[in-house]
């Protein structure tokens, strides 16, 4: 039994870390964050150049054909770097097409998704904190969809939406279709631009896959959010170690104070074991279907929630500057808040896990 990553998986993370360090230095990250739209075309093209958008797309469509575990490992690095862009919705839209699309739908969109030429987005949330497929109310009738979707990631630049409709099904709606209205929503995480999308009789192309596809897409989203939150939490701990080694109080580095050392050690001890939650959930997604849903819920319920705890402690350890706009800590703190709330909060996922396990 293997408990670590393969050489290829470690190489994948190393390559993405090198890309992020080169393409997203701190001044550029702050510039994108301050702009508030979470979008940089050059960064998106660069990511396509290293194959990020096509990691989990089949080779026949121009992707790498990797599994969700490799995609989760990539999202861990995205969280470390707080990489701006529509990577989350794009990855889930590609997964929806891969699992539930027709041959024609796949042939049309997946090669463009893999190359980054086209951008996909997932539009499933509805008012009242509704995320689950069985609760979707958007109506699909006669090839047209009517309804309102909330918190759609990078809707303004997406080429096509994968929309959740009644019956737990998914349908494709192009942004350019008549009846699509996009209204920006101000969010905390400025690396991910959110919008409200109103669909008033917009032409829709139903994916032939059933409600099980929608469930799988949501489970994948839970895992990727957990991976992203873990990467962000670990980066915050590393930043705090560096800060406390250089910041002095009474002529002594903060890291020498017992209370500071103990707090950082506790955060690391609480965070490190969380790798296993999203690693196992990602493995189960492709290899253990009977365990996949429960594992995804456990990862989503725990990892982003603890990551938010880490961010709050880190802000305190950074003292008077930690909560300010000028401090870089805010980038990661706001990232994990998004990861905690998108697709539903910890309580909703604990309740779902209890129901799945018949507790």
Per-chain topology:
Elements: H1 7-23, H2 26-35, H3 41-49, H4 68-81, H5 87-100, H6 103-115, E1 120-123, E2 139-141, E3 144-153, E4 160-165, E5 169-174, E6 180-185, E7 194-203, E8 205-206, H7 211-246, E9 248-249, E10 252-253, H8 258-271, H9 275-287, H10 289-317, H11 329-341, H12 346-356
Parallel strand pairs: 1-4
Antiparallel strand pairs: 2-3, 3-7, 4-5, 5-8, 6-7, 9-10
Helix pairs in contact: 1-4, 4-7, 4-9, 5-6, 5-7, 7-8, 7-9, 7-10, 7-11, 8-10, 9-10, 10-11, 10-12
Written overview of the protein:
The chain is built from twelve helices and ten strands. The strands form three sheets. A four-stranded mixed beta sheet has the order 1-4-5-8. A four-stranded antiparallel beta sheet has the order 2-3-7-6, with no helix packed on it. The longest helix is centred in the middle third of the chain and has 36 residues, at 211-246. The mean pLDDT is 94. It is globular, with a radius of gyration of 20 Å. It folds into three domains: 7-88 and 108-115, Acyl-CoA dehydrogenase/oxidase, N-terminal domain (Butyryl-Coa Dehydrogenase, subunit A, domain 1, Orthogonal Bundle), CATH 1.10.540; 120-210, Butyryl-CoA Dehydrogenase, subunit A, domain 2 (Beta Barrel); 212-356, Butyryl-CoA Dehydrogenase, subunit A, domain 3 (Up-down Bundle), CATH 1.20.140.10. With 359 residues, the chain is an alpha+beta fold.
């Amino acid at each position: 039994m293997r408990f670590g990553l393969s050489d290829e998986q470690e190489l994948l993370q190393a390559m993405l870390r090198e890309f992020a360090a080169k393409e997203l230095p701190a001044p550029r990250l702050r510039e994108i964050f301050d702009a508030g739209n979470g979008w940089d075309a050059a960064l998106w093209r660069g990511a396509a150049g290293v194959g990020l958008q096509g990691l989990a797309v089949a080779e026949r469509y121009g992707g790498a054909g990797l599994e969700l575990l490799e995609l989760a490992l990539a999202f861990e690095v995205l969280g470390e770097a707080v990489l701006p862009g529509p990577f989350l919705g794009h990855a889930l839209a590609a997964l929806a097409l891969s699992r539930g699309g027709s041959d024609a739908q796949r042939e049309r969109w997946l090669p463009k998704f893999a190359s980054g030429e086209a951008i996909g987005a997932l539009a499933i949330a509805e008012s009242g904190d509704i995320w689950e497929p069985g609760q979707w109310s958007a109506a699909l009738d006669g090839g047209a969809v009517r309804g309102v979707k909330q918190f759609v990631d990078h809707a303004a630049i997406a080429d096509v939406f994968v929309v959740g409709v009644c019956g737990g099904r998914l349908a494709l709606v192009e942004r350019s279709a008549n009846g699509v209205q996009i209204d920006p929503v101000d969010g905390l995480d400025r690396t991910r631009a959110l919008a409200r999308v109103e669909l008033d009789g917009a032409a829709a192309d139903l994916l032939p896959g059933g409600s099980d596809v929608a469930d799988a897409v949501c489970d994948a989203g839970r895992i990727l959010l957990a991976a992203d939150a873990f990467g962000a939490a670990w980066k915050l701990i590393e930043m705090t170690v560096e800060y406390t080694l250089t910041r002095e109080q009474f002529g002594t580095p903060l890291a020498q104070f017992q209370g500071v050392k103990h707090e950082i050690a506790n955060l690391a001890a609480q965070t490190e074991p969380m790798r296993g939650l999203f690693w196992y959930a990602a493995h189960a997604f492709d290899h253990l279907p009977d365990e996949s849903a429960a594992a995804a819920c456990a990862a989503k319920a725990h990892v982003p929630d603890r990551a938010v705890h880490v961010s709050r402690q880190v802000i305190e350890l950074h003292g008077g500057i930690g909560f300010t706009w000028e401090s870089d800590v805010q980038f990661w703190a706001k990232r994990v808040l998004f990861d905690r709330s998108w697709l539903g909060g910890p309580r909703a996922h604990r309740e779902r896990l209890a129901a799945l396990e018949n507790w």
